[in-house]
Each structure stands twice: as structure tokens, then as C-alpha cells.
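Predict structure. Chain length: 452.
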Amino acid sequence: MDRDILFEPIRFRNLEVRNRLFRSSTRARIHFERRFARGGVGAIISSHVPVHISGRILPNYATIDRDDRIDFWHDVVEAVHAESCKYILQLSMSGRQQDLPGVENLDPHAPPGSFYRRPLSSTDSRDSFHGLAGRAATRTEIKQLVQWFVDGTERARRAGVDGIELHSGNGYLFTQFLSSAINDRTDEYGGSLKGRAEFLLEVIRAIRDKVGDGLFLMVKLSAVERDNAIFRWRKRGNTLSAQIAQWAETAGADAIHVSTGSIFPHPRNPAGAFPIKTAQRTYGTILASGNRTLLNYLLFRYLPQLFLWFWQQSQADFLQDGKVVPERVEGLNTEDARAIKAAVTIPVLCTGGFQTADVIRHAIQDGAFDGVTMARSLLANPDLPKVFAEGRNKPERPCTYCNRCLLEVLDNPLGCYEPQRYNSHQEMIADIMSIFENECSSPQAAELDVVS
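Prediction complete.
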């Protein structure tokens, strides 16, 4: 399509991406990433990649905590580059938001009823949804965390990535420092907004000191936290984080990626239905992780309508008669992104269920943001950019925002689990399992099983 804004390059200070369509974070496998690159996205943002093993949210997420991880990521990058697509590694730490700590974090000396070492956080308090525990990092440990991010960035650079993203949204470690609802520190890393932002800004500055200005660095922020989305008696947390975005730009960020929510999952991230029947089947996997997980499980199984009432309190604007209206979900972070964009001079990306060309096109032309990131939409239709390039406004079978993919991933491969989108159950399973095609004969197969 001639001069379609969706397919015009987006230029950052130190990176150019061929179009305005980015794949946002899902877990990494070489064949999986290649699939999305072939679908036509301009760049792929990796899954949550911890810079230390203690900060992994799920045991099967790839890490960049050691030099021997570099070769794996180099292979991923090469596979993506072969399709003329850029690759951005999302560096993160779970903090207290660690759904399945893994055997590496079992604590053999823990008292009865406790299983895992508590990961470093801004606070000793537990998260409001699962009751996951963390431990407030000391000043010395914060300096170690900063160094882990610097080391992870250097490894990413050596692997040949086109840039990094600091995951500073959705309830993970940086959010736990940034949030006025979570951070209860009284030292220089707490209190005022400036104090709560200091950890993130130290990391950005330290990365720039190490690798210079040549490597693209993006910051993902929950523009509005809505920490009281489920339980209205809780603090709201940060409102619009335009000041944090400005500080991040001054410290050295090249772009801001706008999201929402202070936990994951959150009623507005990923927005849409809560797959209660899937939760009844898969949620038991994380029972040992938090002190509210058993209560949640019992609610899912025996009082699902009560749980859904709490969950849907903040979803009124995209529900009708208790059901999700897809057209109301798409682009729900647009106005937050517009406000962030007005506060900074660097490009802004926005996530929020995008899958309609005209919706994305209008928002870019209207100055709300410079590009979009998509995950569920691309799980449903990996060739979505090609659909747009062919002049179609929407795929034949769009994502329904059922969010089954969100909870199935606890026990099963990542993929689309919406039966309505397939002609049969067998077709759905074949599509999900296709991510493993060609890996059995790959020389990297054994390594994939270890680090993915």
C-alpha cells in the first residue's frame, strides 16, 4: 500500500524499524520468533528475560544471566534478522511477582509452610492478587540489581540484538519501586515520585555508561497503575506517569512503551475476558507460590461469579451484559499514550489489543503514538501485518480477547486456545504445536529445551 503510515519506517535515535507494527512480549523459541518475523512485523520484543535466575517469573522462560546464554540469543537474533525484522530483548526481573519460582529458588532451610526464597523487591509486603512474597532489597542489593541489568545489556549487545527494553510496567520489579501503592520504603529509593523512580533511572544511566548511546533502549511503563482495579479499598497507585517518562528520556531512553496495570494479570492488561474455566484447570499449578492462591483457586472453582464480579469492576467500559465487546477493548491505552507522547520528544509505542488497521492508522495520524505492539492479536494471526498490507482492515478470524492463552501457558505451550477460531479441536492443537516444527532436527534443539 503506497504511503500507508502503518508501513512507513519508524526512526529512533539509533534504530530504524521498517514499519509501525511490533510484536510485544511472549516467550522465546527460535521457530516461534521466526514465525512472527515472517508474518511481517517490523520488530519483535522478546519475552520477560531475567538478568538473574532469581528473577525469573516462570521456569521455562529464557534468561540472560550468564555468558553461555549469549549463543542462544544470537541464534534467535539471526533467525529474525533473516526475515528483515529487528529484535529487541526485554530485560526484566520479577521482584515479588514470581508465579512459579522453580527448583532453583527452593529454600531447603525455610520454615514449615514456606517453600521458596523471597525474590528481591522494593517491599516486604505481598502482592494483592496472588499473595506472592518478596523481600525489600538493601542498598547494597539494589546496586547489585543495577549491575545485573548492565551485565545483561552487555550480553544482549554481544548477542547482536537491535536494542533492549526495560520492563518497567505490569507489576514487575521496576513497577514495585515506581508504584506509590507498592513501594513503602523510607530511604532514597522510596517516598516521593523522584525517589521511587531512582532505581529505574540508575539502571538507565548505568547502561548508557557501559554501552554508550549506540544501543537502542526502550522503557515500558504502566502509564496508569490502577492498583485498586480488583479490590477498591486498595490505593490507586500512580496516575499518569508522564514525569517518569520525561526522566527516563533525560537519563537516556530512546522510546517509551505504554501499558497499564500494577500486577499481571490485571483486569485491563490483558484486557478482555477472564477464562474462569481454564483457571479452574490450570491455576492449581501455582498454589505453593503465594498465600492467596488457595483462596483464588477455591473462588474459581466454587464461587466463580463472586470472583468475576471483583475482576470486572474496572471493565465496565468494554463490557456489555457481562460480556466483552471486542471493539471496546482495542486501543484502550491510546489516550494514556497520547498524554505520554505530549510530554516527551522520543517516539512512543502503545499496547492494547490492536488488530484493526484503521484503528491503528487513525491513532498514529492523530498523534496519539508512533507505533503499536501486539501479542494476543499475533498469536491468533501471525500474518496480521500481511493482512493489512493486502488492504484488508481486519483478519477473517480476529482475536476474541478470551485470554485463554494467558492461563494455558502455565501448563501448556503458548498459543491461541479459542475454539471459535478453528474448524475443529484437532486444528487448534495442530496450530499450537506447530511452534515445535523443525526443532527436533535442529542442532539447537537440546539447548532450546534447557533455556526456553
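Summary: The chain has one domain: 5-272+329-400.
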